[in-house]
Amino acid sequence: MTGNPPPDTVRRTAPPAGGEDEPEASILRLLADYLRPHRRPLLLTVVFQIVQTLASLYVPTLNADLINNGVAAGDTGYVIRHGALMLAVTVVQLTAAALGVYYGARASMGLGRDLRADLFAQVQRFSAAEMDRFGAPSLITRTTNDVTQVVTMLVMGLTLFLTAPITAIGGLSLALTLDVPMTGVLLAAIPVVAVAISFIVTAMIPAGRVMQRGIDGINRVMREHITGIRVIRAFVRDDHEQRRFSDANAELTAASLRVGRVQAFFGATAMAVSNLTSIAIVWIGAARIADGRMQIGDLIAFLTYAGLILGSVMMSMGVFMMAPRAKVAAGRIREVLDTAPSIIDPVDAVGELPGRGELDIDGVTFRYAGAEEAVLRGVDLIARPGQTTAVIGSTGAGKTTLLNLVPRLFDVDEGAVRIDGVDVRDMDRALIARTVGLVPQRAYLFSGTIASNLRYGDPDADDAALWRALETAQAADFVRAMPDGLDTVIGQGGTTVSGGQRQRLAIARTLVARPKIYLFDDSFSALDTATDAALRAALAADIADAAQVIVAQRVSTIRDADRIVVLDAGRVVGTGTHEELLESNPVYAEIVNSQLTLQEAR
Fold this sequence. Notes:
Layout: H1 26-35, H2 39-71, H3 76-125, H4 128-134, H5 136-161, H6 163-178, H7 180-227, H8 229-234, H9 238-290, H10 296-337, E1 359-366, E2 376-383, E3 388-393, H11 399-405, E4 414-419, E5 422-423, H12 429-435, E6 436-439, E7 448-449, H13 450-454, H14 463-472, H15 476-481, E8 489-490, H16 499-513, E9 517-521, H17 529-542, E10 547-551, H18 555-558, E11 563-568, E12 571-576, H19 578-584, H20 586-595, H21 598-601
Parallel strand pairs: 3-10, 3-11, 6-9, 9-10
Antiparallel strand pairs: 1-2, 1-4, 4-5, 7-8, 11-12
Region (Disordered): 1-22
GO molecular function: ABC-type oligopeptide transporter activity; ATP binding; ATP hydrolysis activity
Membrane topology: Multi-pass membrane protein
């Protein structure tokens, strides 16, 4: 599918601004872009809908002729012949209608499939900045509910809206051939319906926007409730979460009721206009039949045409009622598709590295979008193959942010992050992924088996490689103890294993990939002291040739590192070995003294 633009091939500093307040043509642009691959079913839909509409318009004329010249005259043969013709036309009408709906559904479902695929692909290209900007609940809503709104609008448009103008124009024309004065009744009803259409479109746009935001809110609360259920239970905050959900639910309900009131008003107006029009036609038609100026068959045909015309208008009103919500949904989808990822591969991206994995962070300054203060200021750090570089500091010092800059989850504002002398902003992201292995602060496992999670690092790894990684990560024993071993099923997020097991499996996943640079972001925090020590010893033996950068809160985890970098409020305030820093750096000494006795520290 090529409906959305391809990924940019030049570096950008910021995504263009987007928003929900798209012009009215947003849904038309979206449909035009994504319906091109479905031209054939679209064309067939148009053809069959036209055939179905013409057939439906022809039936009342045949019926009038049958009544006037067959039933009224007592000509049974005429009735049989015209009845057979009416049956044939009806069969054609039903067949064309069924085929029109079928091909319309194919085009619409194809559009929905392509939209979802492109939205997913676009989100895959987003950096952490874009993910923070949109938020996971909103992106889920846009990929599911918003796409459904657009697809439903297209289905209704192809099956209803397309036939409405043909039915209205054709019905009025044929009604004129039956009785010109009576047609004035239909012409008088049209302005009333037009006013109702304008009212609905005006009222539905803001209501539709509020509804979509309400769905975002429901998704956000539900997602947080499900993922944080253990914390909620631990703090007995069930009532608080219930109130949060009730507030979000009430907001969505209020928006839905506003939409429902608009729809109810239209339904009552449309029914009143339809009934009053029928009454007027019968009243005037009865007088004209009594005067001999109209035949009974023509009156029946006229009533049928009136029903077709008003019915087509009311059906098209259903499209108009959905259009505002679909427009809002299309704008929200467009906002995602038109947002250029802030982190992209340059045109001449470096695809291979000459060295063994040397990391240099030079004078790096970084500020999160919208933040007043920089998180990191002029930070320097080096990591060499066969060495361990540790980063320690108080909470909020910028340790995790520093590690996230290496695999280019964010781009630096000043300075540079280099691997083997090459700026990561000039490297192909696939090369970065092969070179840098990050074990995040919050270990995340995907739904599937232990083996499928471990092979996330290397899809081609055999079982022997998996077990070797598990042995190094001190996870082999508990995996062997599981009934299915490597085939043991893991719940989404790794909720079926303990925090320490989850951390060790995440470390094993990175070990399977065998990168040149390992980044451990407080990845040993859930381990007991003995397991921590055993794991670090195993890592020293298994990845002795790789560069390691370890962020940790425990001094015992990093005291044997070749180089320790002390961060304080986003700045490097000390670099050296444990002994050197303990003697010369008050910040490091304070951290050590808060965890170890004087004898242990030495």
